[in-house]
Amino acid sequence: xxxxCTLGGAVVGGYAGxxxxxxxxxxxxxxxxxxxxxxxxxxxxxxxxxRRFE
Length: 54
What we know:
Layout: H1 2-23, H2 28-52
Helix pairs in contact: 1-2
């Protein structure tokens, strides 16, 4: 459950970060960095969700 939630959080967070940066008209490297931060936030939130349901 933990791995599934962290993977899902990373995917959703990364996509959300990429989409947000793209909507603001950022360049490729900015979108990449914002996506990385979004993935990290998603992993953290996914981990918190997994711990709640254990």
